[in-house]
Amino acid sequence: MKLRDQLRKTMSPPAYARLARCARTVLASLHRRNLTRLAIIFDTDKWGRHWYTQHYATHLAPLRRRRVNLLEIGVGGYEDPLQGGASLRMWKSYFRHGRIVGIDLHDKSALRERRVDIRQCDQTDANALTKLSQEYGGFDVIVDDGSHLNVHVLRTFEILFPLLRDGGIYAVEDTQTSYWPSWGGGLQSPSSMMVFFQRMTDGLNHAEYPIRGYSPSYWDTHITSIAFFHNLIIITKGRNDEKSNAPGMITREIQGTDAG
Q1: Which 3 state secondary structure label does DSSP give 38?
Q2: Is 222 a catalytic residue?
Q3: Are residues 75 and 21 in the same domain?
Q4: pTM of the model
């Protein structure tokens, strides 16, 4: 019998849970720089069931030593108040100076710990999300691992992305639901989150549009990169105000359109 099975058999569930948390904390301290290893230690599905941590590591490594505020939507464990929080613990270990906040539709307050705050909140509640952002002085990283319903994902993005700090990262997980009609999506459906974010890629180059008097949208001027991976989108916020390097050619394109 494995040691883990022996301990589980001889110890009370609460005592075993405390021991397991201590063991994971010790292991995590040895692998703080390796996000994939941390995901395995804390048993989050961001690696194994999904393969997200390799992409997160690329985008988040520059923030690792900063005092970041990270918000994750969706704590996990469904209705069980004592289940979930695995990825929050992973983020806490990776961002050793960060403050980690999780929100969930269900009450998960029992899972709070030092540097991990958990609130009961609907991910589409604009007032509650705005107050939470103000309380923490804004977030540097936002991860949407919530309901995965397309309408919720888009509404949450519309609320939270403007509140994200400049230079911040906004991630949307499990985008496979964008193709599923029962989740409010569908291939090339206008209600699909993938279609929404795909359209935003053009805005990265809004300075090159041959459109007379074009007025850039908020998304045009505040998104500096969008990266698409399998079931994951990562958006970077900043000032997208670079001018065209060929304004004369754009003018000629406009004139040609006018003449036609």
Answers
A1: helix
A2: no
A3: no
A4: 0.90
Q: Is residue 73 located within the same domain as residue 182?
A: yes
pLDDT digits (tens, 9 = 90+) for 200-212: 999 999 999 999 9
Residue 182, classified by CB atoms within 10 Å of its CB into exposed (0-12), middle (13-18) or buried (19+), is exposed
Question: Residue 139: which domain range?
Answer: 32-259
Spatial contact of 28 and 41, defined as CB atoms under 8 Å apart: yes
Task: Provide the number of structural domains found in the chain.
Answer: 2
Contact 10, 1 (CB under 8 A): no
Paired strand residues for 118: 102
CA distance 232 to 150: 14
pLDDT, position 10: 74
Selection from 136, 127, 126 nearest residue 102 by Cα:
136
CATH of the domain at 175: 3.40.50.150
| Residue that is written with structure tokens 């692998």 in the block | 31
The Cα–Cα gap between 130 and 125 comes to 9
Which of 50, 55, 106, 148 is catalytic? The answer is 148
Q: Distance between CA 250 and CA 238 in Å, rounded?
A: 25
Give CA–CA dist 64/189, Å, rounded: 37
Residue 22 structure tokens:
């201590």
